[in-house]
Specification:
The protein is built from 13 helices and 18 strands. The protein is an alpha/beta fold and 379 residues long.
C-alpha cells in the first residue's frame, strides 16, 4: 500500500488525500491486464485519475493463470473516515470470446435491485465513472500490447458484504456488497468545522464585494444545473455541502438581503422534514416526506407503499407522474421547504429554493424563487 503525499489545508490543518474504490478497481484492472497480455509481472502501477492526480500504487495478491491474471490494490482514504479504508479491491482480467471489454462484479460487490440508481437493476454496483476508468485503462494496455481480442474484467472485494452493512447500500437497494464509487478518483477529507469555515470565507468575500443576495447549492449537481439552466455563472454560487442551516445562519450574520438555494430533490426534500443538515448520518427521511405529501395530494395506499420502498427520489417522481400527482405533491413540498427556510432566518432576510432532478429537470420552486433569482442576476 502506498500512502498519498498530497494534502489539503483546512482550518489550518493538513488533511491527507486518499483515492477511491473506483481508482483501486481501475488500477488493479490495468495491472492485471498488463501481466496477462505482456507476460511480465507488475508490482507497481501508475493511474491517472479524473482529477488529474497521478497515483503510483503497489500491486498485491498477484495470481497468474494461463487465461487470466488477478491482483488487488489496497484502498487508502487518507484522513477521511471511510468504511472501505484498508480494503483490497481485486480485478481479474481474462480472455473472452466476445469482442470488446466486459466488466462484471464479483464477490463482495453489491448488486442493484431497485430502479433509479447509477446502474440498472441487476447490474453490479460499479458506477459510471469507475467503469469508464476501468475500460480506458484496459484499452490503454491493449493498445500498448497490440491486443485486439476480447477481455473480461471482474471486480471483487473480499469482505465487501460485511462492510456494506455499515453503509446505506441495503436501504438503497444494493445487496450483497459494497459499491465501486468515485467521480474524481480522489478522496478529499474535510472536517465539519473546516467546511463551515470555508463556506463562511466564501460568503464573506462575496458580501464584501457588494453582493446582497447569496446563491447557494449543496454540491456538484447544483453547480451543473446552474450552469446549464440558470442564466448566471456557477462561479457566483457557494457550495454548502450538507450544511444548509449553517450557511443560512452565516448569510444572516453577514447581512445578506436574501439567499436562494438551488439543489437536487434528493437533498432539498429533507428540508421539508426540518433537516437543515442533510448528511445521511443524521437521518434519511426522503421517502417518508414524499410519501406523506403524496398521500395528502390523494395518492392511494398501494402507491404510497411503493414510494416508501423506492431507492431514489427520481423513482418517486416517476410514480407521481404516472398518477398525475407530481405537480400537486411537489408544490406542497416547495411550500414546506419555504416555511422551514424562513423559520431558520426568522424573517431577517428572504429565502427561497429551486428544486430539480437530473432526470426530470425543474421540479418545483418556492413562491419567491424567481424574484430572488432576478436580484442575483442583476447584481
Amino acid at each position: 500500500m502506498i500512502f498519498m503525499e498530497e494534502y489539503i489545508v483546512k482550518d489550518g490543518k493538513k488533511l491527507k488525500l486518499g483515492y477511491t474504490t473506483g481508482s483501486c478497481a481501475a488500477a488493479a484492472a490495468k495491472a492485471a491486464c498488463w501481466m496477462l497480455l505482456s507476460g511480465q509481472r507488475k508490482e507497481k502501477i501508475k493511474l491517472q485519475t479524473p482529477k488529474g492526480i497521478e497515483l503510483d500504487l503497489n500491486v498485491s495478491n498477484i495470481t497468474v493463470n494461463e487465461t487470466s491474471v488477478s491482483c488487488s490494490i489496497q484502498k487508502d482514504s487518507g484522513d477521511d473516515p471511510d468504511i472501505t479504508k484498508g480494503a483490497h479491491i481485486f480485478a481479474e482480467v481474462g480472455f473472452s470470446d466476445k469482442e470488446g471489454i466486459e466488466i462484471f462484479g464479483g464477490k463482495g460487490i453489491g448488486t442493484v435491485t431497485k430502479r433509479g440508481l447509477d446502474q440498472p437493476v441487476g447490474s453490479a454496483a460499479i458506477n459510471s465513472v469507475p467503469r469508464r476508468m476501468i475500460r480506458e485503462n484496459v484499452e490503454e494496455i491493449c493498445r500498448i500490447t497490440d491486443y485486439r481480442g476480447g477481455l473480461k474484467v471482474t471486480i471483487s472485494a473480499p469482505g465487501g458484504e460485511e462492510l456494506a452493512k455499515k453503509t446505506f447500500n441495503p436501504r438503497l437497494g444494493i445487496v450483497g456488497g459494497i459499491s465501486i464509487l468515485g467521480t474524481t478518483g480522489i478522496v478529499e477529507p474535510m472536517s465539519e468545522q473546516a467546511l463551515i469555515d470555508t463556506i463562511r470565507i466564501e460568503l464573506n468575500q462575496k458580501r464584501k464585494n457588494g453582493a446582497k443576495y447569496a446563491l447557494l447549492t449543496p454540491g456538484n449537481y447544483g453547480m451543473e444545473y446552474i450552469r446549464k439552466n440558470i442564466n448566471v455563472s456557477p462561479d457566483i454560487a457557494v457550495m454548502t455541502s450538507n450544511y444548509i442551516g449553517d450557511s443560512l445562519d452565516i448569510c444572516k450574520e453577514l447581512g445578506f438581503s436574501g439567499a436562494l438555494l438551488v439543489g437536487h430533490i434528493g437533498k432539498l426534500v429533507k428540508i421539508a422534514g426540518g433537516m437543515l443538515n442533510t448528511h445521511s448520518k443524521y437521518g434519511d427521511c426522503r421517502m417518508e416526506i414524499m410519501a406523506s405529501h403524496a398521500g395528502a395530494a390523494g395518492l392511494d395506499p398501494e402507491h404510497i407503499k411503493e414510494i416508501l420502498d423506492s431507492a431514489t427520489c427520481d423513482e418517486v417522481v416517476r410514480i407521481l407522474k404516472e398518477k398525475d400527482l407530481d405537480k400537486q405533491t411537489l408544490e406542497s413540498i416547495a411550500r414546506k421547504i419555504s416555511f422551514i427556510l424562513d423559520n431558520r432566518v426568522l424573517g431577517s432576510m428572504e429565502t427561497g429554493a429551486i428544486v430539480f432532478s437530473r432526470e426530470y429537470g425543474l421540479l418545483c420552486e418556492t413562491e419567491n424563487a424567481r424574484q430572488l433569482l432576478k436580484h442575483i442576476t442583476e447584481e
